[in-house]
Design brief:
Blueprint lengths: L5 E6 L11 H12 L3 E6 L7 H10 L4 E5 L5 H14 L4 E4 H6 L1 H7 L5 E3 L4 H10 L10 E3 L1
Parallel strand pairs: 1-2, 1-3, 3-4, 4-5
Antiparallel strand pairs: 5-6
Helix pairs in contact: 1-6, 2-3
Length: 146
């Protein structure tokens, strides 16, 4: 069993896409809240956050694990964000959505700050990471890890 209690979920800003509600992260947030986890959601896209504003909100949050949702074209932003998060707090970072699903090998090979990638749907898989973490990582379906 892990000691993860405070979850930070981040929707990175998209490029060239109108404002979109982060439905996938909302599902994950609702699902893990039902299991008594505290969840903070930062929506960098809808809130039009600059990099500085994103870091300010991250610094203000209480968290012991981070989930990042990003499309495949946001690799560079996620690389930057993961590095900055680890400077703020050395906690596990999980990447999902299109980037985590389609580019997990590249992410894990080139961004040492990323600890896990979720492949496919994230609600139950993210909860498994929260509940099992490193102790039983090889038994969690739907993830890639280093």
């Amino acid at each position: 069993m892990n000691n993860y209690k405070d979850v930070l979920l981040i929707q990175v800003p998209f490029k060239h896409i109108e404002t979109v509600f982060p439905l996938g992260l909302a599902y994950i947030a609702a699902f893990v809240k039902q299991k008594k986890y505290k969840v903070t959601l930062i929506d960098g896209h809808t809130d039009h956050l600059s990099k500085e504003e994103m870091l300010c909100r991250i610094r203000q949050a209480d968290f012991d694990i981070v989930g990042i949702s990003a499309m495949a074209n946001r690799y560079q932003y996620v690389a930057w964000l993961a590095q900055e998060i680890k400077k703020i707090r050395n906690v596990p970072i999980v990447v999902g959505n299109g980037l985590g699903t389609g580019s997990y090998k590249v992410l894990l090979q080139t961004i040492p700050e990323v600890d896990f990638c979720i492949i496919g749907e994230g609600e139950e898989t993210f909860l498994d990471i929260l509940q099992r973490g490193n102790s039983e990582i090889s038994q969690i379906p739907g993830i890639a890890y280093r």
